[in-house]
Structures are given as C-alpha cells and as structure tokens.
Amino acid sequence: MATAATAGSDQVNMRFIAGIVSVATIGGFMFGYDSGVINGTQKGLESAFDLGKLGIGVNVGAILVGSAIGAFGAGRLADIMGRRGVMMLAAVLFLVSALLAGAAGSSAVFIVARILGGLGVGAASVISPVYISEVTPAGIRGRLSSIQQVMIITGLTGAFVANFVLARFAGESTAPLWLDFPAWRWMFWLQAIPAAIYLIALLGIPESPRYLVARGRDEEARGVLQRLFGAAAADRKVAEIRASLASDLHRPKLSDLVDKVSGKVRPIVWAGIGLAVFQQLVGINVVFYYGATLWEAVGFTEDNALQINILSGVLSIGACLVTMAVVDRVGRKPLLLIGSAGMAMTLAVVAWAFSTAVTGVDGGVSLPGNNGLIALVAANLYVVFFNVSWGPVMWVMLGEMFPNQIRGSGLAVAGFAQWIANAAVSVSFPALAVSPGLAVTYTGYAAFAAISFFFVKALVNETSGRELEDMQG
Questions:
Q1: Peptide bond preceding 392: is omega within 30 degrees of 0, i.e. cis?
Q2: Which member of 32, 144, 213, 311 has the lowest number of beta carbons within 10 Å of its beta carbon?
Q3: Is residue 301 in some structural domain?
C-alpha cells in the first residue's frame, strides 16, 4: 500500500490510516468472538450448572445486559475520556471476562463474567465505528468503516472454528481436555489471547482529532491530522471541526439530543434508534448465538451443526467484503433496501421449511425430504443478505450520521437501543422455539425485515461522501 495518496489538496497517509484502522477493528473482532463463543458451549453450561431452557436463555443473554450498559456508557465516556481510552477499557474487560467465564464454578459467577464481557462488547460496538469515521477521509470512510463488520464476523467465525476444533479434539464440548478441564471452558479461555493483543496494540494509535478539538486540545489534534492528511490540510480541518462546534461550545451532553426550539427529540436520533433496533429484530443473532442448538433441533448432529456455523461465518465475511467494495459507490441507503427485501424473502422460506418439521417415534425432530437442505440454503442466503447490508451499513451510518456535537450522545442512545433489542430477541428465542415454534418465530423475523424496508425508504438519508462536519439533524 502506498504511503500517501492525494485527495484534493490533502496528502492522505494511507499506511498510517490503515494501521490505526486495523488496531481499532480488533475491537470488532473481540465483539464477534465474545458474542459467538457461547455458540457451542451450551451443553457444557447446561450440565455444569444444571440449567433448564430458561436458565440457558439467561446465561446466554447475560452478555446482552452488559452490552446495553456498555454501549450507553461508552458513548458518554467517549466524550469524557476519549475514544482510545474507552477502547482500552473495553480490552481490559474482554480479558477479565474470558478468564472468569472459563473458570466459573456457578451460574451466578458465569453471568457476572459475561456481563463484564458485555460491557466490553457494548463499548467496542459503538466506539470503534466512531473512531474509524473520525480518522478516515470521507471518500473511503464507508469502505474503511465496513472493516468493523468484517472483523465482527471474523471474530464470530474464529469462535466457531475454535469451538469446533476443541470439541472435535476432546470428543465433545463437555469432555475433558487440557489439565482435565472440559473443552467448553477452554473455548472461553482462548479469548484471552486476542484480548491481550488488542490492549497492547491500542497503545500505539492516536486519539481522535475531533475529540481533541472538542476538548480544546487543538495543537494535539493538529498533530494527529498532520500525520493523517498532511500539513496543508491540518490547519484547515481543525478550523472546520471547530466551526462545526462553534454554534454550541458547551461540552456534549444527552440533552443535546433534544431540539431546543421544538423541545422534541431530534429526527436524526429516531432514525439512528430505528436503524439500531431493526438490525436486531430481523433475528440475526439467533443464528449466531443459537446456531448449533437450532440445527441440532431439526436433526443435524452436533459436529455438523458446528460446521454449519463455520460455513455461515465464511459466507458472512465474503458478503462484508462485497459491501466494502461497493458501499462508497452504491451508497448506504440502497444497500439497506436490498438487504431488507432479501432478508424478508429468505426468512419466509426458512419459516416455511421449519413448518414442515416432523417428530419421529424416538422424539427426534427432522425436516422431511429436501426441506432440511432448503432451510440450510435459505438461512445462509439470509446471512449473506444481512452481511451485505444491515450488518456493516448500520454501524457505518451510526458512526457518521450524527453531527459532531451529538455524536457521542447519539451513539450512546442508539447503541443502548440496539443491545436492548438484541437481548429481547436472543433471550426470548429458546422459549419461542418451543411455543409457538420455529415456523411462527421466523415468520415474525421476516415481518420485521419487510417493515425495515419501508422504514429506510421513508426516514433514512444518504450519508455517503459527506464530511462529518456537514452532517445535520
């Protein structure tokens, strides 16, 4: 990669930008790994802690409680201690959570560990996209911000692969492995390695220049901008950032989300909340959190179910790479519309396939004829549609759609809403899968995908190619 590229009068230091984006997106990898590691450990949790269906839902969903709090708190903390500071705090939480979850001797301790991990996930989910959007040129911002979703899916896939290898090596997830600890515990402990790498790597990247200007540290901001865009651009960009804040020089706070004239929440905030919530209501994390359990429920073996998880992860990464290639040319809104339509159709097919499930004399459930293959293909097409659209594009838009003054607060509220919706979908799924059943549950996800199409068409504005200082709302 070239050291510098010309963008207008700016000398963009692409090597430096690529380096700091690579470090920032390790947070996305940790987000994905911490979210996906639970998929494949549920038999171990059930046997170790004597859990029923509700207990499994609570233990799986514990991370989401922390994630909601972490997303909300990180958005506010980012305006106080900086973007990099919050990412470093998240890295520490990932490390502690990995060690504690693997060592947990009770469900209560495990839940605490997963909540701590959730705090890190929530923080990384909102701060990494903001940081990336604030240090990258407008013309390639979407492409570079999309790397966050690639890394999330890479983390998920990494967790799936690690879980599969450990379970295969031990014989099954509940069988003893090294030091006579069961394989499912090692699935959590392995996460400590990338968490430590993330923490160390963060020491080598600068703070966001937009945060520095907002804190009155213009000289530091100028130094960072000079390394990013060259000396000629640094003074101009500091002035532009300062001008975007000039009409309201107080420190950012949550009340900025309310329009001072009308007294109502700004429309851009509702748009951000809607994007965040619909991304979850289409049911994507049912696939990522419960994929192994889901496929076993319709007749696949544990080994095959774990392999299907890996396939879904690989397809997801491929879809995200497609998004990276086109998001700055096609735009954010068209991709969201394509994704909504595609997800609605493929989820409807999955729902139909599950409606044909039959129970054998031994109590096992299976899909007749080729319906299992149809469900598998449709589910993976659904994953592709999600990851070519709502997966990366939602995070890209949340990182760039809010004006400078309210970016941290807007992300706090939208991120909190996203994780609350995630928790509602994920915790409710085990019970819904039993009654009213998989077919009805997936029909509901398909309906939300269809509604999201009309939401985007009516309320979401394009942000592609616009400078962050030009964002209104």
A1: no
A2: 311
A3: yes
C-beta of residue 328 within 8 angstroms of C-beta of residue 140:
yes
Determine, yes or no, domain membership for 31. Answer: yes
Instruction: Yes or no: say if 360 and 327 are a contact pair by the CB < 8 Å rule.
Output: no
Collapsed DSSP state (helix, strand, coil) of residue 366: strand
- CA pair distance 381, 322, nearest whole angstrom: 14
The number of helices, as runs of H, and strands, as runs of E, in the chain is 20, 4
Residue 459 belongs to domain with CATH number: 1.20.1250.20
Q: Six-digit token pair at 18?
A: 């690529």
Closest CA to 211 of 123, 119, 130: 130
3-state SS, residue 464: coil
Per residue in 215-271, pLDDT (tens digit) is: 888 899 899 999 888 888 888 888 887 876 665 555 666 667 787 778 888 888 999
Write out the two tokens for 7. Answer: 């963008």
The single residue listed with the structure tokens 């402990």 is 189
Residue 89's SS3 state is helix
**Closest C-alpha among 17, 12, 138, 22 to residue 4:** 12
The answer to whether the beta carbons of residues 136 and 10 sit under 8 Å apart is no
Q: How many domains does the chain have?
A: 1
Residue 347: C-alpha distances to residues 25, 265, 380, 389, 454 (Å): 30, 33, 10, 15, 17
Model confidence pLDDT, tens digit, residues 86-132 = 999 999 999 999 999 999 989 999 999 999 999 998 898 888 888 88
Domain extent for 329: 13-205+252-465
| pTM of the full structure | 0.76
Residue 300 lies in a domain: yes
* Cβ count within 10 A of residue 263: 7
d(CA 353, CA 446): 13
Judge whether 100 and 83 are in contact, CB under 8 Å: no
